[in-house]
Amino acid sequence: MAIHLRAHAFAANPLRGVSASTTAVSPSAAAEALLSLLDPSSPAAAADAASPHPPHLSKILPFRRGRPLASSPDPPAAAVAPAAPAWRLAWLPPSRVPGVAPDAFVFLGAHAEGDGKEAAAYWAVDVSNSEGPRVDGGSGDGDGSAFVDLRTLMVATDWSDKDAMGDLAIAGHARALLEWHNTAKFCGACGAKAVPTEAGRRKQCSNESCKKRIYPRVDPVVIMLVIDKENDRALLSRQSRFVPRMWSCLAGFIEPGESLEEAVRRETWEETGIEVGQIIYHSSQPWPVGPNTMPCQLMVGFFAYAKSLEIHVDKQELEDAQWHSREDIKKALTFAEYEKAQRTNALKVNQMCKGAEKGQSITEDLKVGSGEPVPMFVPGPFAIAHHLISAWAFEGVPKLPSSFSNL
């Protein structure tokens, strides 16, 4: 069966977009309110004290080494067993994040807390090098929170839980911005220090003769399911870094001066020797869980019809690439197996928030009812690759107008 999401994981951030803008707090107003809370002796604090209107509510999401602070309470006793514990982001008041410079905070957006209530401003901050007290449950205060790797949270998220998916999108956006701030410390034009502006949404060169504006980095990637229409097969590949038995779509970064379609054809040819003709767009997904040097990739998904079928794998790029029948791919898309992986990781997050870091790995839990490992599987519903593969296996592929069919 196909799994349908409201939006891809890391998309549909509730603090961004048109719906959020109706209750938005401007970055400058949010920054002034935050400063007054961080430094009671500041002019902003004095102005707030004299104002009949209180400052905007500020909520902080701390990160440590790229990991957001999360909490995971046990399911209520009345929950239907075996209910997996849910997780949520652990937002803190500014008083719980002491000793951090004001310009280290990155504005994420604003959102009303409820009908008729004032919007709250949301911030992220990297506390990896903070000398202040610990802000997670590991300090022994029993608050049931811990810094958890974003990939673990991604797999642990119940994709039918709208609030959890929203928290995942917020965490992804925050991590991307913080990692960009950690790498974009100097101007690429003159080498001077780059300083945050607009509440951390961009940077600017501090050199008065340069003042170059620096914006958050996004790395576009094409990801494609190559289809053999005549023999009803799809091309899947393995990289050496993949866990055993996992197969996925081909993917590659877009080069300067190249269109998306050209990138699909070039990457497919370079990695597998397959020539591609017709290309059909599917969807796109922000992907903030790559390496720190690439704080946010944008995965742009396509179906691509093969014009040649003989595979010649580039072993420097791939471990293997093979054609797989529709029936074999349907077997790999077993809904229950992804539920097992989600539950396993949800329990792992819960254990971490209790102070333990024990739990089964994802692949150990991907087994069929007999106890034997599944012969192959593809990435779960959190990845655009899953939805490209699932859409072809269960729903087919829409057709392009004839004028585009043989490009």
UniProtKB/TrEMBL annotation:
Query: A Gene Ontology molecular-function term?
Result: NADH pyrophosphatase activity
Instruction: Look up the coiled coil feature and give its residue ranges.
Output: none
Composition bias, Low complexity: 68-77
CDD domains (UniProt xref) = NUDIX_NADH_pyrophosphatase_Nudt13
SUPFAM superfamilies given in the database record: Nudix
- Annotated keywords: Hydrolase, Magnesium, Metal-binding, NAD
Enumerate the catalysed reactions: a 5'-end NAD(+)-phospho-ribonucleoside in mRNA + H2O = a 5'-end phospho-adenosine-phospho-ribonucleoside in mRNA + beta-nicotinamide D-ribonucleotide + 2 H(+)
Q: Which GO terms describe its biological process?
A: NAD+ catabolic process; NADP+ catabolic process
GO cellular component term, pick one:
cytosol
Q: Which parts of the sequence belong to the Nudix hydrolase domain?
A: 216-346
Protein name per its UniProtKB record:
NAD(+) diphosphatase
Q: What is the lineage of its organism?
A: Eukaryota, Viridiplantae, Streptophyta, Embryophyta, Tracheophyta
